[in-house]
Amino acid sequence: MDLHEKHLTMAEWEALILALIHRAEVGEVAEPLENVHREKGSHYDVIFVGGGAGGRFGSAYSQARGLRQLVVDKWPFLGGSCPHQACVPHHLFSELAREMDYMRWNAETLFFPKFDDAKASIVEAIEVFKNGRNNAHAFMNWQSKEQLDMEYILNSWATVVDKNTVEVNGETFSCDNLVLATGAGTYLPPEIKGLLAEPGTPLGDRLLKRGVYDFSALIDPGLDYEPTSCVIIGGSKIAIEYGSFYQAAGCQTTILTRRQLMRTESLHHVDEDLRRYVVKNMKLRGMEIVEGCEILEVLGTERATGVRVLLADGTEDVFETDFVFIGTGERPPTKPYVDALGIEVDEKGSIKVNSRMQTSVPGVYAIGDLIGSPMEMFKARKCGMTAAKNISGEFAEFDFSEYPDFLHTTYEVTWVGLTEDEAREQYGDISVLQMPPKGIEDHEVCLPLSEGTMLYGHSRPELTGFQKAIYDNRSRRLVGAHHVGYGAKDAFQYLDHLIKKGITVDEMGEMNELFLNPEHFIQLSRLRAGNRDLTSL
Protein backbone atom coordinates (compact mmCIF):
# COMPACT_ATOMS: atom_id res chain seq x y z
CA MET A 1 0.00 0.00 0.00
CA ASP A 2 1.41 3.35 -1.04
CA LEU A 3 0.81 5.74 1.87
CA HIS A 4 2.77 8.70 0.53
CA GLU A 5 -0.30 10.66 -0.57
CA LYS A 6 -2.65 9.16 2.02
CA HIS A 7 -3.42 10.63 5.43
CA LEU A 8 -4.93 7.91 7.58
CA THR A 9 -6.74 8.70 10.80
CA MET A 10 -5.88 6.96 14.04
CA ALA A 11 -8.94 4.72 13.65
CA GLU A 12 -7.93 3.80 10.11
CA TRP A 13 -4.41 2.99 11.24
CA GLU A 14 -5.68 0.77 14.05
CA ALA A 15 -7.98 -1.16 11.70
CA LEU A 16 -5.24 -1.57 9.10
CA ILE A 17 -2.65 -2.83 11.60
CA LEU A 18 -5.13 -5.27 13.13
CA ALA A 19 -6.01 -6.69 9.71
CA LEU A 20 -2.36 -7.11 8.74
CA ILE A 21 -1.41 -8.81 12.01
CA HIS A 22 -4.35 -11.18 11.65
CA ARG A 23 -3.37 -12.05 8.09
CA ALA A 24 0.18 -12.77 9.21
CA GLU A 25 -1.08 -15.04 12.02
CA VAL A 26 -3.01 -17.22 9.56
CA GLY A 27 -0.04 -17.46 7.21
CA GLU A 28 -1.10 -15.00 4.52
CA VAL A 29 1.46 -12.76 2.86
CA ALA A 30 0.32 -9.23 3.58
CA GLU A 31 1.14 -6.15 1.56
CA PRO A 32 3.90 -3.72 2.56
CA LEU A 33 3.08 -0.27 3.92
CA GLU A 34 5.20 2.29 2.13
CA ASN A 35 5.73 5.95 2.88
CA VAL A 36 8.53 6.58 0.38
CA HIS A 37 9.32 9.76 -1.55
CA ARG A 38 10.04 7.97 -4.81
CA GLU A 39 10.40 11.25 -6.68
CA LYS A 40 13.69 11.68 -4.77
CA GLY A 41 15.11 8.40 -6.04
CA SER A 42 16.24 5.31 -4.13
CA HIS A 43 19.42 6.61 -2.49
CA TYR A 44 19.51 7.62 1.17
CA ASP A 45 21.93 9.22 3.56
CA VAL A 46 21.05 6.52 6.06
CA ILE A 47 18.92 3.39 6.15
CA PHE A 48 17.75 1.98 9.47
CA VAL A 49 17.12 -1.76 9.42
CA GLY A 50 14.62 -2.12 12.25
CA GLY A 51 11.97 0.38 13.30
CA GLY A 52 11.85 -0.19 17.05
CA ALA A 53 12.74 2.45 19.61
CA GLY A 54 16.27 2.97 18.29
CA GLY A 55 15.36 2.97 14.60
CA ARG A 56 12.42 5.31 15.05
CA PHE A 57 14.21 7.84 17.24
CA GLY A 58 17.32 7.63 15.12
CA SER A 59 15.23 8.29 12.03
CA ALA A 60 13.51 11.26 13.65
CA TYR A 61 16.88 12.72 14.65
CA SER A 62 18.26 12.10 11.16
CA GLN A 63 15.38 14.08 9.71
CA ALA A 64 16.00 16.86 12.19
CA ARG A 65 19.64 16.98 11.04
CA GLY A 66 18.61 17.27 7.38
CA LEU A 67 19.45 13.71 6.38
CA ARG A 68 17.31 11.64 4.07
CA GLN A 69 16.46 8.43 5.92
CA LEU A 70 14.56 5.21 5.35
CA VAL A 71 13.50 2.80 8.08
CA VAL A 72 12.37 -0.75 7.31
CA ASP A 73 10.59 -3.07 9.75
CA LYS A 74 9.00 -6.51 9.57
CA TRP A 75 6.01 -5.42 11.68
CA PRO A 76 3.16 -3.36 10.18
CA PHE A 77 4.00 -0.67 12.72
CA LEU A 78 6.93 1.26 14.17
CA GLY A 79 7.99 0.98 17.79
CA GLY A 80 9.20 -2.62 17.75
CA SER A 81 8.47 -5.33 20.30
CA CYS A 82 8.14 -2.97 23.29
CA PRO A 83 4.51 -1.93 22.72
CA HIS A 84 3.66 -5.22 21.00
CA GLN A 85 4.94 -7.99 23.26
CA ALA A 86 7.57 -6.77 25.72
CA CYS A 87 7.76 -3.61 27.86
CA VAL A 88 4.15 -2.44 27.66
CA PRO A 89 2.49 -5.75 28.66
CA HIS A 90 4.93 -6.18 31.52
CA HIS A 91 4.02 -2.73 32.81
CA LEU A 92 0.32 -3.57 32.54
CA PHE A 93 0.82 -6.90 34.29
CA SER A 94 2.91 -5.27 37.03
CA GLU A 95 0.19 -2.69 37.57
CA LEU A 96 -2.37 -5.47 37.86
CA ALA A 97 -0.06 -7.34 40.26
CA ARG A 98 0.12 -4.28 42.49
CA GLU A 99 -3.67 -3.90 42.51
CA MET A 100 -4.29 -7.59 43.26
CA ASP A 101 -1.63 -7.53 45.96
CA TYR A 102 -3.26 -4.50 47.58
CA MET A 103 -6.67 -6.16 47.50
CA ARG A 104 -5.30 -9.39 48.99
CA TRP A 105 -3.57 -7.71 51.95
CA ASN A 106 -6.64 -5.59 52.72
CA ALA A 107 -9.28 -8.26 52.01
CA GLU A 108 -12.24 -8.16 54.42
CA THR A 109 -11.00 -5.03 56.18
CA LEU A 110 -12.72 -1.65 55.97
CA PHE A 111 -14.74 -1.75 52.73
CA PHE A 112 -12.50 -4.26 50.90
CA PRO A 113 -14.33 -7.44 49.86
CA LYS A 114 -12.95 -10.96 50.11
CA PHE A 115 -10.47 -11.55 47.31
CA ASP A 116 -11.77 -14.03 44.74
CA ASP A 117 -8.91 -15.96 43.08
CA ALA A 118 -11.29 -17.24 40.41
CA LYS A 119 -11.61 -13.72 39.01
CA ALA A 120 -7.86 -13.17 38.75
CA SER A 121 -7.42 -14.42 35.20
CA ILE A 122 -3.99 -14.33 33.52
CA VAL A 123 -5.60 -15.09 30.16
CA GLU A 124 -8.04 -12.20 30.55
CA ALA A 125 -5.20 -9.82 31.41
CA ILE A 126 -3.40 -10.84 28.23
CA GLU A 127 -6.55 -10.22 26.19
CA VAL A 128 -6.96 -6.77 27.74
CA PHE A 129 -3.47 -5.92 26.56
CA LYS A 130 -3.92 -7.36 23.08
CA ASN A 131 -7.20 -5.50 22.62
CA GLY A 132 -5.54 -2.19 23.47
CA ARG A 133 -2.05 -2.41 21.99
CA ASN A 134 -2.92 -1.24 18.48
CA ASN A 135 -3.60 2.29 19.68
CA ALA A 136 0.10 2.81 20.46
CA HIS A 137 1.05 1.16 17.16
CA ALA A 138 -1.32 3.41 15.24
CA PHE A 139 -0.04 6.55 16.91
CA MET A 140 3.61 5.83 16.17
CA ASN A 141 2.80 5.16 12.50
CA TRP A 142 0.72 8.33 12.31
CA GLN A 143 3.20 10.54 14.17
CA SER A 144 6.21 9.26 12.24
CA LYS A 145 4.55 10.09 8.92
CA GLU A 146 2.44 13.15 9.63
CA GLN A 147 4.57 14.98 12.19
CA LEU A 148 8.12 13.69 11.67
CA ASP A 149 8.00 13.15 7.88
CA MET A 150 9.88 9.89 8.14
CA GLU A 151 10.19 7.61 5.14
CA TYR A 152 9.42 4.02 5.99
CA ILE A 153 8.53 0.61 4.61
CA LEU A 154 6.64 -1.55 7.09
CA ASN A 155 5.34 -5.11 7.07
CA SER A 156 8.46 -6.03 5.11
CA TRP A 157 11.76 -7.81 5.67
CA ALA A 158 14.98 -6.01 4.85
CA THR A 159 17.92 -7.97 3.48
CA VAL A 160 21.34 -6.38 3.96
CA VAL A 161 23.28 -7.06 0.75
CA ASP A 162 26.35 -5.03 1.68
CA LYS A 163 27.12 -1.93 3.73
CA ASN A 164 25.61 0.35 1.07
CA THR A 165 22.75 -1.82 -0.20
CA VAL A 166 19.47 -3.04 1.29
CA GLU A 167 16.86 -5.09 -0.55
CA VAL A 168 13.18 -4.82 0.38
CA ASN A 169 10.40 -6.65 -1.45
CA GLY A 170 12.66 -7.24 -4.44
CA GLU A 171 13.56 -3.56 -4.68
CA THR A 172 17.08 -2.26 -4.05
CA PHE A 173 17.85 0.84 -1.99
CA SER A 174 21.31 2.32 -1.56
CA CYS A 175 22.74 4.37 1.28
CA ASP A 176 25.86 6.13 2.50
CA ASN A 177 25.33 4.85 6.05
CA LEU A 178 23.61 1.78 7.46
CA VAL A 179 22.19 1.45 10.99
CA LEU A 180 21.34 -2.02 12.28
CA ALA A 181 18.54 -2.00 14.85
CA THR A 182 16.76 -5.36 14.82
CA GLY A 183 16.70 -6.08 18.55
CA ALA A 184 17.03 -9.38 20.39
CA GLY A 185 15.00 -12.44 21.34
CA THR A 186 14.77 -14.89 24.22
CA TYR A 187 17.90 -16.94 24.79
CA LEU A 188 17.17 -20.66 25.02
CA PRO A 189 20.10 -22.33 26.83
CA PRO A 190 21.05 -25.31 24.64
CA GLU A 191 21.97 -27.43 27.68
CA ILE A 192 18.33 -27.45 28.89
CA LYS A 193 16.52 -30.38 27.32
CA GLY A 194 12.84 -30.36 26.42
CA LEU A 195 12.25 -26.67 25.77
CA LEU A 196 11.40 -27.18 22.12
CA ALA A 197 8.57 -29.09 20.52
CA GLU A 198 9.35 -32.68 19.64
CA PRO A 199 9.38 -33.42 15.88
CA GLY A 200 6.05 -34.73 14.69
CA THR A 201 3.87 -33.16 17.37
CA PRO A 202 0.91 -31.16 16.02
CA LEU A 203 2.25 -27.72 16.82
CA GLY A 204 2.34 -26.14 13.37
CA ASP A 205 5.09 -23.55 13.18
CA ARG A 206 5.34 -23.18 16.92
CA LEU A 207 8.85 -23.65 18.25
CA LEU A 208 8.37 -24.07 22.00
CA LYS A 209 6.79 -27.14 23.54
CA ARG A 210 3.16 -26.69 24.57
CA GLY A 211 3.01 -25.25 28.07
CA VAL A 212 6.38 -23.51 27.61
CA TYR A 213 6.29 -19.74 27.07
CA ASP A 214 8.58 -16.77 26.88
CA PHE A 215 7.42 -13.15 27.03
CA SER A 216 6.55 -13.04 23.31
CA ALA A 217 4.81 -16.43 23.07
CA LEU A 218 2.75 -15.46 26.12
CA ILE A 219 1.20 -12.75 23.94
CA ASP A 220 1.42 -14.26 20.45
CA PRO A 221 -0.04 -16.81 19.93
CA GLY A 222 -0.88 -16.29 23.59
CA LEU A 223 -1.63 -18.31 26.71
CA ASP A 224 -4.94 -20.09 26.06
CA TYR A 225 -5.56 -21.76 29.45
CA GLU A 226 -5.43 -20.76 33.10
CA PRO A 227 -2.36 -22.45 34.62
CA THR A 228 -2.58 -23.98 38.08
CA SER A 229 1.10 -23.38 38.83
CA CYS A 230 4.15 -21.84 37.17
CA VAL A 231 7.84 -22.72 37.14
CA ILE A 232 10.13 -19.97 35.87
CA ILE A 233 13.52 -20.91 34.45
CA GLY A 234 16.06 -18.17 35.13
CA GLY A 235 16.41 -15.20 37.44
CA SER A 236 16.32 -12.25 35.03
CA LYS A 237 14.22 -9.09 35.34
CA ILE A 238 11.59 -10.84 33.21
CA ALA A 239 11.53 -13.75 35.65
CA ILE A 240 10.98 -11.46 38.64
CA GLU A 241 8.42 -9.19 36.97
CA TYR A 242 6.25 -11.80 35.27
CA GLY A 243 6.61 -14.20 38.20
CA SER A 244 5.29 -11.57 40.61
CA PHE A 245 2.26 -11.08 38.35
CA TYR A 246 1.53 -14.80 38.11
CA GLN A 247 1.78 -15.17 41.90
CA ALA A 248 -0.48 -12.17 42.50
CA ALA A 249 -3.04 -13.72 40.13
CA GLY A 250 -3.18 -16.85 42.30
CA CYS A 251 -0.90 -19.04 40.19
CA GLN A 252 1.63 -20.60 42.58
CA THR A 253 5.02 -19.62 41.16
CA THR A 254 8.51 -21.03 41.64
CA ILE A 255 11.66 -19.33 40.31
CA LEU A 256 14.62 -21.59 39.56
CA THR A 257 17.87 -19.66 39.19
CA ARG A 258 21.56 -20.48 39.07
CA ARG A 259 22.57 -17.30 40.91
CA GLN A 260 21.11 -15.37 43.79
CA LEU A 261 18.04 -13.49 42.67
CA MET A 262 18.89 -9.95 41.52
CA ARG A 263 22.54 -10.95 41.14
CA THR A 264 22.49 -11.69 37.40
CA GLU A 265 24.92 -10.10 34.95
CA SER A 266 22.25 -7.81 33.55
CA LEU A 267 21.64 -6.08 36.90
CA HIS A 268 24.24 -3.67 38.23
CA HIS A 269 24.50 -1.66 41.46
CA VAL A 270 21.86 -3.67 43.34
CA ASP A 271 22.24 -2.81 47.01
CA GLU A 272 22.25 -5.85 49.31
CA ASP A 273 19.76 -4.37 51.79
CA LEU A 274 17.41 -3.52 48.92
CA ARG A 275 17.84 -7.01 47.44
CA ARG A 276 17.06 -8.68 50.76
CA TYR A 277 13.93 -6.57 51.22
CA VAL A 278 12.68 -7.36 47.71
CA VAL A 279 13.34 -11.12 47.90
CA LYS A 280 11.88 -11.34 51.40
CA ASN A 281 8.69 -9.69 50.24
CA MET A 282 8.41 -11.97 47.21
CA LYS A 283 8.62 -14.96 49.56
CA LEU A 284 6.17 -13.29 51.94
CA ARG A 285 3.66 -13.32 49.10
CA GLY A 286 4.07 -17.06 48.68
CA MET A 287 6.62 -17.34 45.87
CA GLU A 288 9.18 -20.12 46.06
CA ILE A 289 12.70 -19.11 45.08
CA VAL A 290 15.28 -21.82 44.49
CA GLU A 291 18.79 -20.43 44.03
CA GLY A 292 22.02 -22.13 43.05
CA CYS A 293 20.34 -24.79 40.91
CA GLU A 294 20.98 -26.11 37.41
CA ILE A 295 18.03 -26.70 35.08
CA LEU A 296 18.33 -30.09 33.41
CA GLU A 297 15.11 -30.72 31.51
CA VAL A 298 11.53 -29.67 30.86
CA LEU A 299 9.51 -32.86 31.22
CA GLY A 300 6.57 -33.94 29.11
CA THR A 301 6.22 -35.17 25.54
CA GLU A 302 3.46 -33.14 23.89
CA ARG A 303 3.25 -30.53 26.66
CA ALA A 304 5.23 -29.50 29.72
CA THR A 305 4.48 -31.39 32.92
CA GLY A 306 7.41 -30.37 35.09
CA VAL A 307 11.03 -29.26 35.34
CA ARG A 308 13.91 -31.50 36.44
CA VAL A 309 16.58 -29.67 38.42
CA LEU A 310 19.98 -30.32 39.98
CA LEU A 311 19.87 -28.55 43.35
CA ALA A 312 22.75 -26.76 45.07
CA ASP A 313 23.29 -29.73 47.41
CA GLY A 314 23.87 -32.06 44.45
CA THR A 315 20.49 -33.83 44.57
CA GLU A 316 17.92 -33.86 41.79
CA ASP A 317 14.30 -32.78 42.15
CA VAL A 318 11.27 -32.39 39.89
CA PHE A 319 8.96 -29.38 40.11
CA GLU A 320 5.62 -30.40 38.63
CA THR A 321 3.74 -27.72 36.72
CA ASP A 322 1.48 -27.06 33.75
CA PHE A 323 3.14 -23.72 32.87
CA VAL A 324 6.87 -23.17 32.27
CA PHE A 325 8.03 -19.61 31.69
CA ILE A 326 11.49 -18.80 30.34
CA GLY A 327 13.35 -15.94 32.04
CA THR A 328 16.91 -16.61 30.86
CA GLY A 329 17.57 -13.27 29.22
CA GLU A 330 17.90 -12.31 25.57
CA ARG A 331 20.45 -12.58 22.76
CA PRO A 332 20.52 -10.74 19.41
CA PRO A 333 20.33 -12.73 16.14
CA THR A 334 23.35 -11.21 14.37
CA LYS A 335 24.46 -14.02 12.04
CA PRO A 336 22.94 -12.38 8.91
CA TYR A 337 25.10 -9.30 9.51
CA VAL A 338 28.22 -11.36 10.15
CA ASP A 339 27.60 -13.23 6.89
CA ALA A 340 26.79 -10.17 4.79
CA LEU A 341 29.20 -7.64 6.28
CA GLY A 342 31.85 -9.57 8.22
CA ILE A 343 30.86 -7.46 11.21
CA GLU A 344 32.60 -8.10 14.54
CA VAL A 345 30.58 -9.57 17.43
CA ASP A 346 31.33 -10.56 21.03
CA GLU A 347 31.09 -13.98 22.69
CA LYS A 348 27.30 -13.63 23.09
CA GLY A 349 26.78 -12.63 19.47
CA SER A 350 26.17 -8.96 20.23
CA ILE A 351 27.59 -6.52 17.68
CA LYS A 352 30.63 -4.66 18.96
CA VAL A 353 30.44 -0.86 18.74
CA ASN A 354 32.40 2.10 20.07
CA SER A 355 30.89 4.97 22.03
CA ARG A 356 29.73 6.54 18.75
CA MET A 357 27.74 3.41 17.80
CA GLN A 358 30.20 2.62 15.00
CA THR A 359 30.84 -1.05 14.21
CA SER A 360 33.99 -2.66 12.83
CA VAL A 361 32.70 -1.91 9.30
CA PRO A 362 33.08 1.77 8.27
CA GLY A 363 29.75 3.43 7.60
CA VAL A 364 27.81 0.76 9.53
CA TYR A 365 26.33 1.49 12.95
CA ALA A 366 24.48 -0.77 15.40
CA ILE A 367 22.15 0.27 18.21
CA GLY A 368 19.78 -0.96 20.90
CA ASP A 369 19.50 -4.59 21.99
CA LEU A 370 21.62 -5.64 19.02
CA ILE A 371 24.72 -4.40 20.85
CA GLY A 372 23.95 -6.21 24.12
CA SER A 373 23.15 -5.14 27.67
CA PRO A 374 21.54 -3.16 29.04
CA MET A 375 18.50 -4.03 26.94
CA GLU A 376 16.54 -0.94 27.93
CA MET A 377 14.38 1.50 26.01
CA PHE A 378 16.34 4.59 27.03
CA LYS A 379 19.49 3.03 25.64
CA ALA A 380 17.91 2.12 22.30
CA ARG A 381 16.45 5.60 21.80
CA LYS A 382 19.64 7.41 22.73
CA CYS A 383 21.77 4.99 20.67
CA GLY A 384 19.67 5.92 17.63
CA MET A 385 20.09 9.60 18.35
CA THR A 386 23.86 9.19 18.85
CA ALA A 387 24.27 7.34 15.55
CA ALA A 388 22.25 10.01 13.73
CA LYS A 389 24.39 12.78 15.21
CA ASN A 390 27.60 11.14 14.05
CA ILE A 391 26.23 10.42 10.60
CA SER A 392 25.28 14.08 10.25
CA GLY A 393 28.87 15.12 11.01
CA GLU A 394 28.51 15.91 14.71
CA PHE A 395 30.88 14.13 17.09
CA ALA A 396 28.72 12.42 19.72
CA GLU A 397 29.34 9.68 22.27
CA PHE A 398 27.02 7.69 24.52
CA ASP A 399 28.26 5.93 27.64
CA PHE A 400 25.45 3.69 28.91
CA SER A 401 27.51 1.92 31.56
CA GLU A 402 25.89 4.04 34.30
CA TYR A 403 22.16 4.67 34.37
CA PRO A 404 19.15 4.60 36.71
CA ASP A 405 17.56 1.16 36.78
CA PHE A 406 14.35 -0.44 37.99
CA LEU A 407 12.24 -3.57 37.99
CA HIS A 408 8.80 -4.54 39.23
CA THR A 409 7.67 -7.05 41.79
CA THR A 410 4.38 -5.93 43.32
CA TYR A 411 6.44 -2.82 44.07
CA GLU A 412 8.47 -0.52 41.90
CA VAL A 413 12.12 -1.21 42.71
CA THR A 414 14.37 1.65 41.62
CA TRP A 415 18.02 2.49 42.09
CA VAL A 416 20.76 4.75 40.78
CA GLY A 417 24.44 5.19 41.58
CA LEU A 418 26.53 3.06 43.91
CA THR A 419 25.48 0.47 46.45
CA GLU A 420 26.55 0.86 50.06
CA ASP A 421 29.31 -1.73 49.63
CA GLU A 422 30.55 -0.13 46.38
CA ALA A 423 30.55 3.35 47.93
CA ARG A 424 32.43 2.15 50.99
CA GLU A 425 35.05 0.52 48.77
CA GLN A 426 35.40 3.57 46.52
CA TYR A 427 35.18 6.39 49.07
CA GLY A 428 35.86 4.74 52.42
CA ASP A 429 34.18 7.33 54.63
CA ILE A 430 30.45 7.36 53.81
CA SER A 431 27.12 8.02 55.48
CA VAL A 432 24.01 5.92 54.92
CA LEU A 433 20.58 7.48 55.44
CA GLN A 434 18.14 4.60 55.49
CA MET A 435 14.50 3.89 56.31
CA PRO A 436 13.83 1.64 58.13
CA PRO A 437 17.24 2.39 59.67
CA LYS A 438 19.73 -0.34 60.43
CA GLY A 439 18.84 -2.08 63.68
CA ILE A 440 15.08 -1.49 63.29
CA GLU A 441 12.99 -4.33 61.85
CA ASP A 442 10.60 -3.59 59.00
CA HIS A 443 7.50 -4.25 61.12
CA GLU A 444 8.65 -1.92 63.93
CA VAL A 445 8.20 1.33 62.02
CA CYS A 446 5.59 2.41 59.49
CA LEU A 447 8.12 4.40 57.45
CA PRO A 448 9.20 5.10 54.75
CA LEU A 449 5.57 5.07 53.51
CA SER A 450 6.78 4.70 49.94
CA GLU A 451 3.89 6.27 48.00
CA GLY A 452 0.61 4.42 48.03
CA THR A 453 1.38 2.60 51.28
CA MET A 454 -0.26 4.85 53.85
CA LEU A 455 -2.87 2.20 54.63
CA TYR A 456 -0.10 -0.39 54.95
CA GLY A 457 1.64 1.99 57.35
CA HIS A 458 -1.35 1.78 59.69
CA SER A 459 -2.10 -1.91 59.29
CA ARG A 460 1.01 -3.71 57.94
CA PRO A 461 4.10 -1.49 58.44
CA GLU A 462 6.44 -4.19 57.10
CA LEU A 463 4.94 -3.55 53.64
CA THR A 464 5.61 0.18 53.43
CA GLY A 465 8.85 -0.08 51.44
CA PHE A 466 12.55 0.63 51.79
CA GLN A 467 14.81 3.62 51.06
CA LYS A 468 18.52 4.31 51.24
CA ALA A 469 20.61 7.34 50.32
CA ILE A 470 24.42 7.14 50.37
CA TYR A 471 26.76 10.14 50.75
CA ASP A 472 30.51 10.53 50.42
CA ASN A 473 31.45 12.25 53.67
CA ARG A 474 34.42 14.18 52.26
CA SER A 475 32.64 15.83 49.34
CA ARG A 476 29.15 15.52 50.96
CA ARG A 477 27.91 14.42 47.53
CA LEU A 478 25.07 11.95 46.97
CA VAL A 479 26.56 8.83 45.35
CA GLY A 480 23.68 6.34 45.46
CA ALA A 481 19.93 6.13 46.01
CA HIS A 482 17.78 3.00 46.36
CA HIS A 483 14.00 2.72 46.68
CA VAL A 484 11.32 0.05 47.03
CA GLY A 485 7.74 1.30 46.82
CA TYR A 486 5.75 3.24 44.28
CA GLY A 487 5.95 6.56 42.50
CA ALA A 488 9.74 7.10 42.63
CA LYS A 489 10.63 5.71 39.22
CA ASP A 490 10.20 8.99 37.36
CA ALA A 491 12.08 10.95 40.02
CA PHE A 492 15.12 8.71 39.62
CA GLN A 493 15.64 9.92 36.07
CA TYR A 494 16.28 13.36 37.57
CA LEU A 495 18.23 11.99 40.53
CA ASP A 496 20.58 10.40 38.00
CA HIS A 497 21.18 13.84 36.47
CA LEU A 498 21.63 15.49 39.87
CA ILE A 499 24.11 12.86 41.03
CA LYS A 500 26.19 13.41 37.90
CA LYS A 501 26.05 17.16 38.57
CA GLY A 502 27.33 16.56 42.10
CA ILE A 503 24.34 17.35 44.32
CA THR A 504 25.27 17.43 48.02
CA VAL A 505 23.45 16.56 51.22
CA ASP A 506 23.19 20.29 51.91
CA GLU A 507 21.51 20.98 48.56
CA MET A 508 19.17 18.03 49.13
CA GLY A 509 18.26 19.50 52.49
CA GLU A 510 17.35 22.81 50.84
CA MET A 511 14.88 21.22 48.43
CA ASN A 512 11.15 21.53 49.04
CA GLU A 513 9.71 18.06 49.59
CA LEU A 514 6.08 17.12 49.09
CA PHE A 515 5.23 15.34 52.36
CA LEU A 516 6.84 11.87 52.60
CA ASN A 517 6.92 9.08 50.04
CA PRO A 518 9.64 9.12 47.35
CA GLU A 519 10.74 12.54 48.61
CA HIS A 520 11.67 11.10 52.01
CA PHE A 521 15.29 11.25 50.78
CA ILE A 522 15.01 15.02 51.20
CA GLN A 523 13.80 14.81 54.80
CA LEU A 524 16.49 12.34 55.79
CA SER A 525 19.12 14.53 54.14
CA ARG A 526 17.82 17.64 55.91
CA LEU A 527 18.14 15.91 59.29
CA ARG A 528 21.85 15.40 58.63
CA ALA A 529 22.69 18.45 56.51
CA GLY A 530 23.32 20.66 59.54
CA ASN A 531 26.14 18.47 60.78
CA ARG A 532 29.66 19.58 59.93
CA ASP A 533 30.74 15.93 60.04
CA LEU A 534 28.26 13.58 58.40
CA THR A 535 27.20 10.34 60.08
CA SER A 536 24.69 7.67 59.16
CA LEU A 537 21.03 7.91 60.09
What do you see in this structure?
By secondary structure, this protein is α/β, with parallel strands linked by helices. It has three domains: 10-80 and 134-184 and 332-391, FAD/NAD(P)-binding domain, CATH 3.50.50; 188-328, FAD/NAD(P)-binding domain; 411-529, 2-Layer Sandwich (Enolase-like, domain 1). It is 32% helix and 20% strand. It contains 16 helices and 23 strands. Strands 1, 2, 3, 4, 5, 6, 7 and 18 form an eight-stranded mixed β-sheet that branches. Strands 9-16-10-11-12 form a five-stranded parallel β-sheet. Strand 14 and strand 15 (316-320) form a beta hairpin. Helix 1 packs across helix 6 (134-146) and helix 4 crosses helix 8. The mean pLDDT is 94.
Q: Which secondary structure elements does this structure contain, and how are they paired or packed?
A:
Layout: H1 10-25, E1 33-35, E2 43-49, H2 53-64, E3 69-72, H3 81-84, H4 87-105, H5 122-132, H6 134-146, E4 152-154, E5 158-162, E6 165-168, E7 171-180, E8 185-186, E9 212-213, H7 215-222, E10 229-233, H8 237-248, E11 252-257, H9 272-284, E12 288-291, E13 294-299, E14 306-310, E15 316-320, E16 324-326, E17 330-331, H10 335-341, E18 364-366, H11 377-391, E19 405-408, E20 412-417, H12 420-427, E21 430-435, H13 454-459, E22 466-472, E23 478-485, H14 489-501, H15 505-510, H16 520-529
